[in-house]
């Protein structure tokens, strides 16, 4: 049977906005050794701001419009931010086909034109030449009927709570803090450096994230546990593969909340250290 103080631990956590889906996760949390984070929406706000619109062969407003239409059916933070910047209603009847390409971007048919919007990997995939200059931020390249139409530069901000989150984990004896992201190398490394994280892997597809988690699982001690923290979009497989899957409930997708063992109801990653401290205290009472 479950010792009574476990309920106290789960209750205390829930008052702090941390939903723990079973008493066994309290025990696992107290043994955490590696904490792996997704970047977008977890350590960063997931609210991208448009910084630059660089069209090729069309006006800036046309490029923004086209890209937003292509993103019509996506719920990715990038898509939400573009819709915000566009600010007008989308006439959905003009979008006759639409598909999300995980870790790459989107493909849509707009007024009979085939439009791709996403990162350089997407452009490589369809064989379209793109702007290769050095910029700081996330680049959304756009191609129309296999011709490059320019790019939109967007950028996200680190959450004010993230530095504290990493610092507190270090203080509570976590051996490694790791960031996994599908975003560009420069962007991921800049965020990881600023937060003083131990390891960062960038430009990963969802399957690459699972692979990295598997390698990290092998690298830890027998008793130590690995926790993964994600906001959800495409993260369900890694959440399932980790010893402890933690979803950020603020922006998180339903699929992630479903796949997670623990849900942080606010958008504060420092709540992970809070949860670990609650679990250690609870375990002390039980033992
Ligand atoms: P993250 O690890 O940052 O959560 P994702 O796997 O969600 O990454 O996305 C990885 C990259 O794929 C993004 O940084 C972006 O370049 C591209 N991408 C994904 N979805 C979209 C989209 N809807 N529109 C444009 N680009 C996208
Ligand atoms: Mg994500």
Automatic annotation (TrEMBL):
Coiled coil: none
Top-level taxon of the source organism: Bacteria
Subcellular location field: Cell membrane; Membrane
Signal peptide start and end residues: none
Family per similarity comment: Belongs to the cation transport ATPase (P-type) (TC 3.A.3) family. Type IB subfamily.
Name of the protein in question: Cd(2+)-exporting ATPase
Organism: Terrisporobacter mayombei
Included stretch of the parent chain: 276 to 562 of 614
